[in-house]
Design goal:
single chain; mainly beta; 14-stranded antiparallel β-barrel; two-stranded antiparallel sheet; 2 helices
Length: 339
């Protein structure tokens, strides 16, 4: 019944909501689930996971970007995991919404099933729709052939592939997102400008240190490379878990994001400088029994930025244990991110 309830919640939450090239990569994976980025983690945790996230930017700016996601991933047999993600991403007159379905296969490399030594493979297929609403931009007194005054839309499919490895307290992911070339001719302003191939390579490596019986520390790093637009980013993360009773813990930490490429700026209208995007994102949350709540604040540390109000994100979640027996019992690892 719990599974049915959350599937219904998952569907109803996104019915009628409309919202960039796949799901934007923010820090929601640190408070929500690794599955939001890496398809090979569908069903990898020892609990089934439902997550809802809501992110908004620059509260003092009209029509600022916002992102909503709903995800569900679960183990359905001893080796097979499945998942689904719906999302809505809006930015002024532009919006994108979509849905991904995921299949993952998990191989236990140890003879004893309760020891975590797992190799996982995952594939996601997605259908996405992008819209550009030009109705508010149209002025009948000005003849601008680039503005039709209509709502332009473009629908296409794409796919993500990933592989992951979990060994005790060590975890590693390699994921290829937007694997398929896509013709994007539905939006007039993009024709011949945006590349048809926008593959994104994401690599993550982390380890969980047990400081004592109550406290675990999880450093990790994520590297993002988008070769077709020559963009490289990295997240350096630190996350801590404090267990205050058998079924609940507090967690928190921070993430620092750096863009290696940068852009040219002229802050004094004379000299040309290179500004590299940088942001720091502190976060905190609580796992209370099977419920999850978390908050993330992101602040740009660039010299030039649109607003100083930052980005705000809320994560709500629930963990249910309907298929826990499929993994052969409890695992011999700290791995709080995968319980």
């Amino acid at each position: 019944m719990k599974i049915l309830f959350f599937i219904m919640l998952f569907v109803s939450f996104f019915t009628g909501i409309y919202g960039q090239e796949g799901i934007p990569v923010y820090q929601d994976y640190l408070t929500g689930s690794w599955y939001l980025i890496h398809p090979s983690s569908a069903g990898a945790a020892s609990t089934e996971q439902v997550r809802l996230t809501a992110r908004t930017q620059w509260l003092d700016v009209d029509d600022a970007p916002s992102l909503y996601t709903a995800s569900l991933n679960a183990r359905v047999t001893k080796n097979i995991g499945v998942g689904g993600i719906a999302f809505s991403d809006t930015n002024g007159n532009f919006s994108q919404n979509g849905f991904y379905a995921t299949f993952a296969y998990h191989i236990n490399l140890n003879a004893r099933a309760y020891e975590l030594n797992q190799l996982s493979f995952g594939i996601s297929a997605g259908i996405l729709q992008r819209k550009l609403d030009e109705s508010s931009l149209f002025n009948p007194r000005i003849n601008d052939p680039a503005i039709s005054g209509e709502v332009l839309d473009d629908t296409y499919i794409n796919s993500d592939f990933g592989i992951s490895y979990f060994k005790g307290d060590l975890f590693a992911f390699v994921t290829l997102k937007n694997a398929l070339p896509v013709r994007r001719d539905g939006l007039a302003f993009e024709t011949g400008i945006e590349p048809d191939i926008q593959r994104t390579f994401i690599t993550t490596l982390g380890y969980i240190f047990s400081i004592n019986r109550e406290f675990d520390l999880e450093p990790s790093i994520m590297y993002i490379n988008i070769p077709d637009i020559e963009e490289q980013l990295a997240d350096i993360n630190i996350k801590g878990y404090y267990k205050f009773n058998e079924n609940s813990n507090l967690f928190g930490g921070a993430s620092y994001r750096l863009n290696f490429d940068g852009a040219e700026t002229t802050p004094n209208n004379q000299n040309v400088d290179i500004q590299r995007f940088g942001a720091i994102s502190p976060f905190f949350g609580i796992d209370y029994k099977d419920f999850v709540f978390a908050y993330t604040y992101t602040n740009q540390i660039d010299e030039i930025k649109i607003s100083s109000s930052g980005f705000h994100q809320i994560t709500l979640g629930y963990n249910f244990k309907g298929k826990r027996n499929l993994r052969g019992g409890l695992r011999e690892c700290n791995c709080p991110a995968f319980k």
